[in-house]
Amino acid sequence: MEVKHFAIVGAGLLSIAGFVGAASGADLPARTYTKSPAVVAPVYDWSGLYIGLNGGGASSRECWTITSNAGVALAPTPSEGCHSATGGLVGGQVGYRWQNANWVFGVEAQADWANLTGSNASLTVLIPATNRTKIDGIGLFTGQVGYAWNNVLWYVKGGAAVTDNKYSTFFTATGVVYNQASDTRWGAAVGTGIEFGFAPNWSVGVEYDHLFMGNPNVTFPASNIAVTRSDNIRQDVDIGTVRVSYRFGGPAVAKY
């Protein structure tokens, strides 16, 4: 009888314990879900002042047409022929860019020392002679519009260009120069490039530019062995460069 009494009491205690446990569980707050931290994506900022170096090669198409000889205008005006003045160039650039969302706008000045030379036999003289062009300086003053994919920037540019030129004509057999002249001419430039930001403030890129330098008239003064003459000299220049720039702007910023 005593054993039976303890069994009944034990069963009652277990029932009470289960009830209390259930009640306590019901009083606990529901488990809250913790969201994982947001992924931070770095965004390259192209805004700021930048300076840099560039180098590459260029080719200039030069076409000479004689318009006067010894002060006498010629009609029609015969062509003396064309040649390409080719060579290398090296220089620097300075500019400023500002970025709005993915769009990048900028202005830039570029100056390069050049060594472009070329020549052809003149088609208008009785004694064989050669016309030669040498370009020793090129400058660009342009505006830019670009689109950025984070640290990759593609842009187009356009504006003004200037070239410093020397022209000469010499006897082909002896190399003796008998006419020479020079000019600094202004024209227009268009170009495009792609740039890669490989560090917060450093970028490297490649660029192509075409220069429309017109067809001005160049006067060759008389020398002790030749009379004065004038030529229209048409010039177009194609330039390809590799560029490295340092930007004085903020580092890449985080975007959530």
3D architecture notes:
With 256 residues, the chain is mainly beta. 10% of the residues lie in helices and 66% in strands. It has one helix at residues 2-27; strands spanning 41-43, 48-69, 72-73, 79-100, 103-121, 129-149, 152-171, 177-199, 202-212, 217-220, 229-248, 253-255. The protein has an eight-stranded antiparallel β-barrel with strand order 2-4-5-6-7-8-9-11. The protein has a two-stranded antiparallel ribbon with strand order 1-12.
How are the secondary structure elements laid out?
Elements: H1 2-27, E1 41-43, E2 48-69, E3 72-73, E4 79-100, E5 103-121, E6 129-149, E7 152-171, E8 177-199, E9 202-212, E10 217-220, E11 229-248, E12 253-255
List keywords for this structure.
disordered N terminus, 10% helix, 66% strand, eight-stranded antiparallel beta barrel, two-stranded antiparallel sheet, elongated, 256 residues, mainly beta, 1 helix, Porin
Alpha carbon gap, first and last residue: 75 Å
The beta-strand count equals 12
The percentage helix is 10-25%
Binned strand content: over 45%
Q: From the helix content, strand content and strand pairing, which structural class follows?
A: mainly beta
Strand order of the largest sheet: 2-4-5-6-7-8-9-11
